[in-house]
Design a protein that fits this description.
This protein is mostly beta strands. The protein is built from no helices and eleven strands.
Length: 120
């Protein structure tokens, strides 16, 4: 059973960088040919795919967020990291990590999500 757990600060000030970690257990993030995505859901809105990192470490980003987003991994800890720079209140959302990619639009494992609020 693969498990994903997001962690990070629940409150970030405007203009700062949001940093979240996703710890994966029950499976390796380097296993062929899985993709690991970050997805968010602002209040009252639908899910938005932000980006992904694949089993080889290649990264993929949503065009609308590419200039502010960085996804990396620590294979020794089996962790993924999301960084979103220059945040505004519009970045307030529940942030999820999930296994899967937008190409297939299929995500078979999800973390429980973590609420991030951008406010001064």
């Amino acid at each position: 059973q693969v498990r994903l757990q997001e962690s990070g600060p629940g409150l970030v000030k405007p203009s700062q960088t949001l940093s979240l970690t996703c710890t994966v257990s029950g499976g390796s993030i380097t296993t062929n040919y899985y993709y690991w995505s970050w997805i968010r859901q602002p209040p009252g809105k639908g899910l938005e795919w932000m980006g992904a990192i694949d089993y080889s470490g290649s990264t993929y980003y949503s065009p609308s967020l590419k200039s502010r987003t960085s996804i990396s991994r620590d294979t020794s800890k089996n962790q993924l990291t999301l960084q979103l720079s220059s945040v505004t209140p519009e970045d307030t959302a529940v942030y999820y990590c999930a296994r899967g990619s937008p190409a297939s639009n299929e995500y078979d494992y999800w973390g429980q999500g973590t609420q991030v609020t951008v406010s001064s």
